[in-house]
């Protein structure tokens, strides 16, 4: 959850104004993205925020025109994702935005008013921050929709991954550098890209630049400005082309360049750790049924709450919970079973839902309460202590395989969406092609690789 809020905060700040006290230049269109535009002021603010994040380390940033191109590409992808989310019916309610802002404030141990004051000191108004959070949530929901519709992990894949682990629980903190190659690249473009990554490799080997700084300056990956950081990965989450190499590497070592679907890559093992599974543990599980009234399907927020209140009154008056759930619940996965959710761990359906279930006594019915899914009424049936060690390990392996698949599919989705888009860079230097960059020798590479 902490990573989620940090990601939302970082993403939102990309679009948030950085130095409002500076005189505002005459605005203009920096980039045309299909039916939308990126204003020069948006681009300037985003670049200023990146520079602010690198205060005291500006020597790690690429030359101004390369940085501007990198940030412009980020904004292009963000615009495309938001447009796709809106066109496919992805919604984020105002209440969800406010809940996220409250959670970010709590994570930073400040009130919302204090968070607003802190943003204001940096030149960002709370309404602007709110809109940025909404955009970030839209993108996350678009990604979740892709995961639900495109990603599946079979039991056979889980079995194979468990067999491959052979008791090893090693995890690796990785970073990468990508030199992109466009689809249908010519032999000359491929050769230029290979020459570029070999030049970057030579700089790192000679000690003229560390890996993170090289990623910031030369990588074409969307996470270039984070030093190419990929975070912690288990063996199941590392592409097979790299997995065997990584297992035989020590922290600080860098792989040889490898050609992949999106271009040439190098990986660095930043750290490694043994995260072997602990002995099977006993956890509390709950058995409950619920009635769900969604917001926005057949009713707005007020109407949904009123309906939930009415149903709760009927239950208090003696109505049968299962019968009412079959009649009124809007959760298709449990409606036919009278709202029965079976046995589940406390946070399986989210922390808010779990907290409400945990407060009940067995046999008790909750008052209506709201989560992101809508308004719930819950009847707790029972509790038990369960040994979930083996199940937990399989679930974790399934999740890591799913994350790896989602990452591959999401990157393919972004490349496809970017390739199909009409993008016209009006003022961004050297950005006529999204793959244009600076050569490893410090010269500009305008070959499109």
UniProtKB/TrEMBL annotation:
Q: Which UniProt keywords apply?
A: Chaperone, Isomerase, Periplasm, Repeat, Rotamase, Signal
- Please tell me one Gene Ontology term that the record gives under cellular component: outer membrane-bounded periplasmic space
Q: Extract the InterPro entries matched here.
A: OMP_Chaperone_SurA, PPIase_dom_sf, PPIase_PpiC, PPIase_PpiC_CS, PPIase_SurA, SurA_N, Trigger_fact/SurA_dom_sf
| Record GO biological process | Gram-negative-bacterium-type cell outer membrane assembly; protein folding; protein stabilization
Please provide an example of a Pfam family that matches this protein in its UniProt record.
Rotamase
Superkingdom, taxonomy of origin = Bacteria
Q: Which gene encodes it?
A: surA
What compartments host this protein?
Periplasm
A GO molecular function annotation here is: unfolded protein binding
Cite the residue spans of the region called Disordered: 428-449
- Locate the PpiC domain: which residues? 169-271, 283-382
List the signal peptide residues: 1-20
Q: What is its EC number?
A: 5.2.1.8
Its recorded reaction(s) are: [protein]-peptidylproline (omega=180) = [protein]-peptidylproline (omega=0)
Q: What is this protein called?
A: Chaperone SurA
Q: What is known of its domains?
A: The PPIase activity resides only in the second parvulin domain. The N-terminal region and the C-terminal tail are necessary and sufficient for the chaperone activity of SurA. The PPIase activity is dispensable for SurA to function as a chaperone. The N-terminal region and the C-terminal tail are also required for porin recognition.
UniProt-listed HAMAP family:
Chaperone_SurA (MF_01183)
User: Which organism does this sequence originate in?
Assistant: Novilysobacter ciconiae
| Major enzyme class | isomerase
| Its job | Chaperone involved in the correct folding and assembly of outer membrane proteins. Recognizes specific patterns of aromatic residues and the orientation of their side chains, which are found more frequently in integral outer membrane proteins. May act in both early periplasmic and late outer membrane-associated steps of protein maturation.
